Amino acid sequence: MSSADGVPTELWLVRHGETEWSRTGQHTSVTDLELTADGEAIAARLQHPLADQPFARVLASPRRRARRTAELAGFAAADVDDDLAEWAYGDYEGLTTPQIHESDPAWSVWTGVTPGGETAQQVAARLDRVVAAARDIEGRTLVFAHGHSLRALAARWLGLDVAQGRIFDLDTATISVLGDDRGIPVVRRWNVAPR
């Protein structure tokens, strides 16, 4: 679908820049970490590929790492949207998957039960609101958020179960683009690093 001026309805996804915990593979949701120096430098490189795009709306997760990435990419005035927060890891906050597997060998954020955290259904409900809002706006929506939430958001855009987000690997400070092809939701670009 395109707007009257020919700008397609698209959802652009940017994962925040590197933090100490993203570097070490620790699950980070509510812990409000700063970007590393490398994370800041790479996030600043997002300016060039994003600057020429006409965005109808720009949103960011409430977490500092996403808001700082938006600022460094040239979107300091991004609207904060709580629905873009990272999947809540509850008791597994700050742990790596191997550490979690010591006590819960079969656990996966995609299909497991996370004590004190969000369920896949809860994550789907809030990300479905993001999808609906993006589809209601003519033109491009740009969001700055997190690894698991953006992977789940891609799944929901495509009409897939949240658990299918596991197939979308996503690095820090990358750009992905979702759109439609003749009414069918598609992935236009995925996990593109700035140059």
UniProtKB/TrEMBL annotation:
This is Histidine phosphatase family protein. GO terms for molecular function: phosphatase activity. PANTHER family: BROAD-SPECIFICITY PHOSPHATASE YOR283W-RELATED, SEDOHEPTULOSE 1,7-BISPHOSPHATASE. It comes from the Bacteria. Pfam families: His_Phos_1 (PF00300). Substrate binds at residue 65. SMART domains: PGAM. InterPro entries: His_Pase_superF_clade-1, His_PPase_superfam, PGM_Phosphatase. Gene3D superfamilies: Phosphoglycerate mutase-like.
